[in-house]
Amino acid sequence: MRNKITIVGAGNVGATAAHWIAAKELANVVLIDVLEGVPQGKGLDLLEAMPVEKRDSFVLGTNDYADTANSDIVVITAGIARKPGMSRDDLLNTNYKIMQDVIAKVVANSPNCILIVVSNPLDAMAQAAYKLSKFSRNRVIGMAGVLDSARFRCFLAMELGVSMRDVDAMVLGGHGDDMVPLVRYATVAGIKVET
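and the corresponding structure tokens:
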């Protein structure tokens, strides 16, 4: 039986995550959102693309947390997005309230899942998910580190005119204005970028 991954939030990040998971046949996908019709439409589009891509993942769009029951992994992308001039921290109070609601429903339906938090401000929302879920720390993951490091690798490759596959680099710190790209450890095909 194939694993089940639920994605909470059918916006750009959630729908893109659902697409990649289904296209790689990593799991069956449940895409859930509070907006009526949005996850259903996006889920159906992805499901109908599976035969064309010769893939066999099942994708369901829903507004009902009962459909998410017994998920192995739950990816949380829900929350309001930043508007021009807003910092990630400006989202804290509103997105915390959303996180409270989401975590209560996720834990009730998938008490053994692993949480991957993508909502902003990411570090605070990952901590909130950890505290609210009462899961062990190895079951609540914030995904900023890999995202920020991937962005850094991409920018280095573009600037240097090299393949992204050849670039190794990392970013430390919180997902926001205080993150630190470690240029002195960045390499291209094993050769240091900074000399």
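(Above: one complete record from the training split.) The two ends are 51 Å apart (CA to CA).
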